[in-house]
Specification:
The complex is a heterotrimer. Chain A is α/β, with parallel strands linked by helices. Chain A has 18 helices and 22 strands. Chain A has 2 domains: 235 residues, 3-Layer(aba) Sandwich (Rossmann fold); 239 residues, Rossmann fold (3-Layer(aba) Sandwich). In chain A, strands 6-9-10-3-11-12 form a 6-stranded mixed beta sheet, with helices on both faces. In chain A, strand 13 and strand 14 form a beta hairpin. The longest helix of chain A has 16 residues. Chain B has one domain: ABC transporter involved in vitamin B12 uptake, BtuC (Orthogonal Bundle). In chain B, strands 1-4 form a two-stranded antiparallel sheet. In chain B, strands 2-3 form a two-stranded antiparallel ribbon. In chain B, strand 2 and strand 3 form a beta hairpin. The two termini of chain B are 23 Å apart. Chain C has a domain of 192 residues. Helices cover 71% and strands 2% of the residues of chain C. Chains in contact: A-B, A-C, B-C.
């Protein structure tokens, strides 16, 4: 088999980090290669290098045996590589057709041929089983449709290698099945495909081979048939998966700390209801666009609710902005730690102190920060939360994802909240720190805090949630309790096609 | 609370429902945006037009109309360049100084090399200054507003050094007559502005470069991913902004007949005001050439009306500042309205 | 996106090794030295410049001239204190010239009728009100700071011209002139006020909850909002404080000119921003260095003085100020792209 794509000893470095430590991969025509690995293992870096967005420090990429240097994504596309990116990279101001052909417009003398663009787009969308008007502005599409347009964009180019970075994260069951059919057909036509996914069942279903990245190294590359799921997970983690030991059934306090009744959230069709007691950890599951993120944002006053009632510790509260939410005992950690969590220019101590509840402090300290007291507080946090930092003046931006998250949990703890909303609490956190964070969340719950965890990571919810509500397209489609909170049940309900009946209490 | 959904058809129904609501929301947001964009410039335009005709003596006299059309043309041409720069999320504060330098160099060149060469030199100077801005932004990675704030000062210094603080008289009668010449009763500069406007609209709406401008302004990440050279688009946008300032400068020199180092002070503010008032969003990705053109007429009518009413010129400062703040509030309100309507779909 | 999952070794560790005892909460000696050195480089530039000018024109070192340099530096410096706060919060104010004009015209107008103290208080109140307007536009009307203040610059200038009908308002009170241009020893009063204000601003930025909030939203506004910090309120206050600083600069400028008029400070915003940015406060926000701002203000005063002594056309100042500002930002961009603060991008 002649290799279409060869990655030879590619090394990539960021300041202070080696993201890829000499990775070599080969891909033949007609082959579907599953690329798996933990967050931060180097998958995204590798894809960005293949897409021409980043340039490797060392090593080379060969297409059809010829070495290529990609200085931009245009170079990579010219060499025959097409990428479906994980983030939504569409231009909201342009129409569907313009987006599909963006960067390789069909033109005559610089003038876009609109009729041909429209026709080709309609054909591509039809192939994907999508009935969309090519002239519709992208801003009017649902998340799932946007993902399909991204795929149409990748297919619209001439390519030999197709790279799909988590293409199914926002798709429902039927769409996923159709996408798998397209992947198989492209492979049969002789295209080489790299398929990245967190859902291992997908990998086993459509991939011929699997490559596993861990800490920037290729640790396994084998035909799918020779592997099974536990062994794959072992490769990804570098050891036997150490399950987080769920303690005895949570000692759920009697008092209801958070009660949400008929909360109408902008952009979500049905009103939300939710009740969380002190000491309870409630999971919210669902695909991207299912509405669970909006729910947590509305509970934190970041989205203004249109109606309904929220009670915290029995008191009805108005949540018009985050500041009011914090005052009323609600705290949220965003899934976007870098964009919405850390304050990169401030040191870890200040980062932990910014939301501190000042009402119980001595008068002088309510007016001015006391350096000595804050140092002492931080030292205590560092002990309690096992934050690995050399000193309290360390800038938070230089810490690992796990340590940043621990500092932010410390911030939540010092805010004295009664309800804690966590979005994707372990995204970009390595395995070791992940278990630490689960324990910290459990400790917070045991201390009487009502915890709501919104996560796209089903195993995570299965590990820590006492109860789990599953959302689909803005509606709650299932509520799982106790022993029913399993990965299978969550995933099944999330894509809206499980055959299993969830028990109702 | 509903039961677990067990059959695919229910799923399909949910998806279809979500899709329909999404489309409906987008349609409403779009019509709201369009309404505010158009109302934001058309209503003030009509009010000022009617008020001018009704209350200002000599407002509709042929000499004043000619004068207004020439002034509006010069402003609109600079506005096109600014529209382009703002559409790619940039800003050019140096257009006033660039126009002054272009006008003075053009005036000197007309005197020494003749009208045609002089005009071309003026436009080339503008383009070169725009190129300098573009290089600062793309190569040295200086944010656009502070790069052009600095070059505003640098160019102004250069033009004062060039003129030594003295005015330059233009001798060529032919050159001076360009601004006052008429074809079919319409001043030539206005025809130039209209033609350039049509060309700019066509490029932005129908050509590959226009799609790239929208992509770079609307979603720079998407532009990078699809292989568009963001730096090239930015460089060209600043270059065009400089060139339009140059064209405006040449027309200004022709109109005034005598130029000095302090002409076109505060032009950046007028240009930004008409662009934003015309509906081009400061957030990038939505160029509106037609709006810029109408807003240029509007601003010129205001200035002319205040002049004819013998209002001291510093009230024009206040009017301009207020107009800019008004335009920006509309832009902000429009974006907020659209965001509210679309809210909740990005998770 | 690739997340970075390693703990970078930090200078603090070296000290821990040296002492044998865990270093609880201080940054390492090396880090402190590095920080000092990065400030030092600007001081070095200043010293080199002074020596060079002194060699070319020995009259530079005369006490009278040095005193004059400090005198000149204090006008930009006073305004730069407020600007440093703004820039540390990721904000900007281009209406400096307008605020200075309006507040000094107020001083000149009321001086014949009130005490000096009363006039100064009035100027500061006006500065606060104009700052409040800027703050409200930026915070609640949600207009980008540089363009909102570009608009108000013209509003304020128009106001100044309307107030004076475009004329110069003379200041006849010799007490006021003496008070604002006097000296203690050979140090000019405005410079002493500048130093005091710089120290106060430093304390405000580094040692109060308010300053922490400013640095927080300058660093990452979304994160500061989601942490429940009073972002909008603090933004408005920063603009008010900055307005007061500008007005204070206006008071002393009026004293120096013995008059006030609409055009007295046009283009002044460039000098102020340049002093702050050259001093090392990055435009992207998150931190501010008052020491750098003081050095930057003095640096530009020395530069202007040197051009003056060397007999260079004053128009060159426009060119030089702009060029130095661009250079400072370009160098700063390069340094920060070497990931000085990771995750700040």
């Amino acid at each position: 088999m002649a290799a279409v794509l060869q990655v030879v000893d590619v090394v990539q470095e960021y300041p202070g980090v080696r993201a890829l430590k000499g990775v070599s991969i080969e891909l033949a025509a007609g082959q579907v290669l599953g690329l798996v690995g933990e967050n931060g293992a180097g998958k995204s870096t590798l894809i960005r290098i293949l897409g021409g967005i980043e340039q490797p420090v060392r090593g080379e990429v060969q297409v059809h045996g010829a070495p290529h240097t990609f200085r931009s994504s245009a170079d990579s596309q010219a060499a025959g590589i097409s990428v479906v990116s994980q983030e939504f990279r569409l231009v909201a101001q342009l129409s569907v057709a313009d987006n599909v052909f963006l960067g390789h417009e069909m033109t005559g003398g610089g003038v876009v041929n609109r009729a041909r663009t429209r026709k080709r787009t309609a054909e591509l969308l039809d192939q994907l089983g999508l009935d969309l008007d090519p002239d519709r502005p992208v801003s009017s599409l649902t998340v799932g449709d946007r993902q399909m347009v991204e795929i149409a964009r990748a297919l619209s180019r001439e390519f030999d290698v197709l790279i799909m970075d988590e293409p199914t994260a926002a798709l429902n069951g039927a769409e996923i099945t159709r996408l798998h059919g397209i992947v198989n057909r492209l492979a049969a036509q002789g295209k080489a495909i790299v398929y990245v996914s967190h859902h291992l069942d997908e990998i086993f279903e459509i991939c011929h081979d699997v490559a596993v990245l861990r800490d920037g190294e290729l640790v396994a590359h084998a035909p799918t048939a020779e592997l099974d799921e536990p062994r794959l997970v072992e490769h990804m983690l570098g050891r036997k998966p150490q399950a987080y030991e769920r303690g005895a059934a949570a000692t759920v306090g009697a008092e209801v700390r958070l009660q949400v009744t008929d909360l109408e959230v902008p952009g979500v069709s049905t009103p939300f209801d939710l009740t969380v007691r002190g000491g309870e950890i409630v999971g919210l599951a669902g695909l991207v666009g299912s509405g669970r993120t909006e729910l947590t944002r509305a509970l934190f006053g970041d989205l203004t609710a249109l109606g309904g009632e929220v009670r915290v510790d029995g008191k009805p509260v108005r949540l018009r902005n985050s500041r009011e939410a914090v005052r009323n005992g609600v705290f949220m950690l965003s899934e976007d730690r870098k964009g919405e969590g850390i304050l990169p220019h401030l040191d870890v101590t200040e980062n932990a102190m910014v939301s501190r509840d000042k009402s119980k402090l001595p008068l002088l300290q309510r007016l001015l920060p006391m350096a000595r007291d804050e140092r002492a507080q931080f030292s205590k946090l560092r002990e309690d939360m096992r934050i690995r930092v050399p000193h309290g003046r360390q800038l938070i931006g230089n810490l690992s994802g796990g340590n940043q998250q621990k500092v932010l949990l410390g911030r939540a703890l010092l805010s004295g909240c009664s309800v804690l909303l966590l979005n994707e609490p372990t995204r970009g956190v390595d395995v070791g720190a992940r278990v630490d964070i689960y324990q910290l969340v459990k400790q917070l719950a045991d201390a009487g805090v009502a915890v709501v965890v919104s996560s796209s990571d089903a195993p995570e919810l299965a590990a820590i949630a006492d109860r789990c509500a599953v959302y689909f397209a803005g509606r709650q489609v299932a509520e799982l309790h106790g022993a029913d909170v399993t990965e299978d049940n969550i995933v099944g309900a999330s894509v809206g096609q499980t055959a299993q009946e969830a028990t109702h209490v | 609370m509903s039961d677990t959904i067990a059959n695919p058809s229910a799923t399909e129904a949910l998806v279809a429902d979500e899709r329909a609501r999404s489309a409906e929301r987008a349609r409403r947001a779009d019509s709201r945006r369009r309404l505010m964009q158009n109302a934001g410039v058309l209503i003030p335009f009509l009010i000022v037009l009617i008020a001018g005709l009704a209350a200002v003596p000599n407002f509709a006299s042929s000499s004043n109309v000619t004068n207004m059309l020439v002034n509006a043309a010069i402003l609109a041409i600079v506005g096109y360049g600014m529209t382009l720069v703002i559409a790619v999320r940039g800003i050019d504060l140096s257009v006033g100084s660039a126009q002054a330098l272009a006008a003075c160099v053009a005036a000197a060149a007309v005197n020494s090399m003749g009208p045609v060469v002089g005009a071309l030199v003026g436009i080339a100077v503008g383009a070169a200054l725009g190129l300098a801005n573009g290089l600062l932004v793309t190569q040295l990675r200086v944010p656009g507003f502070v790069a052009t704030l600095s070059t505003m000062s640098v160019f102004r210094g250069l033009v004062l050094l060039f003129t030594g603080g003295a005015p330059i008289m233009i001798a060529s009668v032919g050159f001076k007559s360009v601004a006052t010449a008429k074809v079919l009763g319409i001043p030539v500069p206005f025809l130039v502005a209209a033609a350039l406007g049509v060309a700019a609209w066509f490029v932005l709406d129908r050509m590959r470069f226009g799609k790239h401008v929208v992509a770079v302004g609307g979603s720079p990440e998407a532009a990078v991913d699809t292989g568009i050279s963001v730096n090239r688009v930015l460089l060209l946008a600043y270059l065009v902004a400089g060139a339009t300032a140059g064209i405006g400068g040449v027309l200004l020199a022709s109109q005034l007949g005598v130029v000095n180092g302090s002409v076109a002070a505060g032009l950046e503010l007028q240009a930004i005001a008409i662009v934003v008032l015309g509906g081009t969003s400061m957030a990038g990705g939505r160029p509106r050439i037609v709006g810029t053109f109408i807003a240029a007429l509007l601003l010129t009518m205001i200035n002319s009306g205040l002049n004819l009413l013998n209002v001291p010129s510093f009230y024009q400062y206040v009017a301009l500042g207020a107009l800019l703040v008004f335009a920006l509030s509309i832009d902000g309100a429009q974006r907020a309205a659209v965001r509210r309507m679309l809210e909740g779909r990005h998770s | 996106m690739t997340t970075i999952d390693t703990v970078t070794p930090t200078p603090g560790r070296t000290r821990r090794g040296a002492n044998g005892a865990p270093d609880e909460n201080g940054p390492g000696l090396r880090q402190a030295l590095l920080q000092f050195a990065s400030k030092q480089y600007l001081v070095a530039v200043l010293i080199v410049l002074c020596v060079a000018v002194g060699l070319a024109k020995p009259s530079f070192w005369g006490t009278g001239n040095l005193s004059n340099v400090l005198f000149q530096a204090s006008f930009v410096g006073l305004a730069a204190c407020g600007m440093t706060l703004l820039i540390a919060g990721g904000l900007l104010d281009l209406s400096v010239g307008g605020v200075i004009a309006v507040s000094s015209i107020a001083v000149a107008t009321v001086l014949p009728h009130t005490t000096i103290g009363g006039a100064i208080v009035l100027a500061l109140v006006i500065g606060a009100v104009l700052g409040l307007i800027n703050g409200l536009l930026v915070t609640y009307v949600k207009i980008a700071p540089f363009i909102a203040t570009l608009g108000t610059q013209y509003l304020f200038l128009g106001l100044a011209f309307i107030w004076t009908s475009g004329k110069v308002v003379p200041i006849t009170s010799s007490h006021f002139r003496d008070a604002t241009t006097g000296k203690l020893g050979w140090l000019p009063v405005p410079f002493l006020v500048f130093v005091v204000l710089a120290v106060l601003t430093f304390l405000l930025l580094q040692r109060t909850y308010f300053g922490r909030t400013v640095r927080a939203f300058g660093s990452n506004e979304r994160a500061a909002v989601l942490a429940g910090m009073p972002v909008n309120r603090s933004k408005v206050i920063v603009f008010i404080v900055a307005g007061v600083c500008f007005a204070l600069a206006g008071v002393f400028m009026a004293g120096r000119l013995s008059s006030a008029e609409g055009n007295m400070a046009t283009g002044f915003e460039m000098n102020v921003i340049a002093a702050v940015v050259v001093g090392g406060t990055a435009l992207r926000g998150g931190r501010g260095t008052m020491f750098g701002t003081v050095v930057g203000s003095v640096l530009f005063a020395v530069l202007a003085n040197a051009l003056n002594l060397l007999g260079v056309a004053s128009y060159w100042q426009y060119v030089l100020t702009g060029a130095v500002l661009i250079a400072a930002i370009a160098v700063g961009a390069r340094r920060s792209s070497a990931a000085e603060v990771r995750g700040a991008g």
